[in-house]
Amino acid sequence: ARDRIQSINPYVELDLYPLRLTTSNAIEIIDKYDVVADGTDNFATRYLVNDACVLTGTPNVFASIFRFDGQVAIFGAPGGPCYRCIFPEPPPPESVPNCAEGGVLGVLPGMLGTMQATEVIKLLLGIGEPLIGKMLIVDALSMNFRTLKGGKDPECSLCGERPTQEGLIDYEAFCSSPSTETPTLNTQHQDHMFFGPQVPSVSVIDLKKKKDAGDDFFLLDVRQPEEQQISDIGGHLIPMDQLADRLSELEAYREKDIIVMCRTGSRSAFAVQWLQQQGFKGSFNLEGGIVAWSRKVDSSVSVY
Question: Is 303 among the domain residues?
């Protein structure tokens, strides 16, 4: 990579780090630079980079690709959200295929890389409107570009009003092991929590059959609005933290089926557990959430 860059522009100053970025060196390395461009391909490093950038006050120009989709955003810039504001918890390891399994359109890395470089230049020169508080979604199949807005989360564990995380953590454990904390209904975005007893569930194939047959059921989406903007399969949006206050919207389906969905099927499992306690006995969790729907039913639905 160094040789290729220098062959293009021999006047670029390059610092090589022939080592793995870890909790022991991330702060020291990242603190030396004005901007970080994150092109990592695993969640553990992605959260490590985000957290180190927030703790050092370094803007993080983020890009990711999967199949035919890409995302570009700036995290950790003054006044803007960090990666945890949008994705507080990683998905279960088995729910997201790697590039070898899911595949990536060959031109996407180049497309997203140049967009990422553009955002870096805008930040350094102080020009234009950088993607702070916004995420650019690229659908290469339709060549559709969308810009979604997502602000800073006041409840963010790292950069919120009352942060609970003061330093770097064990990211391999964070991204591979379920949390053992007892959840509450107001917990937001929890995508890998432990819920105790299994809850009734349906597969994404079952959901598609119900939709195709025109069955009478209520599809409840407990994600955040910015998540639904990225990928929407027609659910009625009531974010997890609003569910208790908006329970009346479900009354007509108290004796009917309610299928609850989220990103990976974890938040929705908790919602089902809570709904059943409120007397909604026909509540079911959508196994695997929107990620499973994209993998098994409709690959045009964006995965994030």
Answer: no
